[in-house]
Specification:
This is HNH endonuclease 5 domain-containing protein. The chain is α+β, with helices and mostly antiparallel strands. The chain has one domain. Helices cover 32% and strands 22% of the residues. The protein contains 6 helices and 10 strands. The protein has a 6-stranded antiparallel sheet, with helices on one face. It has a two-stranded antiparallel sheet with strand order 1-2. Strands 3-4 form a two-stranded antiparallel sheet. Helix 1 packs across helix 4. The radius of gyration is 18 Å and the shape is globular. The two termini are 34 Å apart.
């Protein structure tokens, strides 16, 4: 049997991965704004309608810029590390002003940052839908849980649980013909490195894991080795 026949990628082209309507664009998962150039080969792609693609783009841009400013400890453009973010904030002073306004200092003089959480969670849910569509099958239900937190703020036990993922006793075998199934049986797919369950799209920039488990799906993401995201469907 030709292993390529196992992939059911036709399901990624006939419906928008985010709303189920007819797609007229393609969307990278993760979005390229979260990655550095040169981009890794073989980035996951799903079908998307123009509305969903457009509606998410500004929030993704905001999150990429916010994370870069936080990890660099500044909104000064010349002090940022990522050239792409420097370009975005140079051309978009209003976005930079919003991020500047989110920064404050505590009583000891340390910087604190208050994200626009509705935008952060919107991006994490979008990414999770894209990963599930690419690894398993498109689904459109709202998740039961969405969590965003800096890795460094997690207590040791929570960090260990996050990194380890789904307990073996809760895992189920996914549908034959999906990437998720092939990963579960030990196949290495595409160009990306795997570290345990984690698929490393770009080192130090983006990694994720998507699992089917009893009652639903669990998607975990790490952006810039700083922001951890968990999106879970339990029924």
């Amino acid at each position: 049997m030709d292993p390529r026949k196992l992939f059911m990628d036709d399901r990624l082209t006939v419906i928008c991965a985010y709303c189920g309507e007819a797609p007229d664009t393609r969307d990278h998962v993760p979005s390229k704004v979260l990655l550095d150039e040169p981009f890794p080969p073989g980035l996951p792609v799903v079908g998307a309608c123009s509305k969903c693609n457009h509606d998410f783009s500004l929030d993704e841009q905001y999150l990429a810029c916010f994370v870069e400013c936080v990890t660099c400890g500044t909104c000064e453009i010349e002090d940022l590390r990522r050239p792409k973010i420097k370009r975005i904030l140079s051309k978009n002073p209003s976005l930079r002003a919003r991020i500047v306004a989110s920064q404050s200092r505590d009583e000891e003089g340390y910087s604190t940052w208050k994200p626009e959480m509705d935008r952060v969670l919107n991006v994490l849910i979008k990414l999770a839908h894209g990963h599930i569509a690419y690894e398993f099958v498109p689904m459109f239900d709202e998740p039961d849980h969405v969590i965003a937190a800096p890795l460094t703020c997690m207590p040791d036990d929570e960090r260990k649980e996050f990194e380890n993922g789904v307990p073996r006793g809760r895992m189920v075998f996914s549908e034959i013909g999906t990437r998720g199934f092939l990963r579960e049986v030990g196949s290495k797919l595409g160009h990306f490195e795997q570290e345990g369950d984690w698929i490393v799209v770009q080192s130090d920039r983006y990694r994720y894991t998507a699992k089917q488990c009893e009652g639903g799906f669990l998607v975990r993401m790490v952006l810039s080795e700083y922001l951890a995201g968990i999106v879970a469907w339990e029924s």
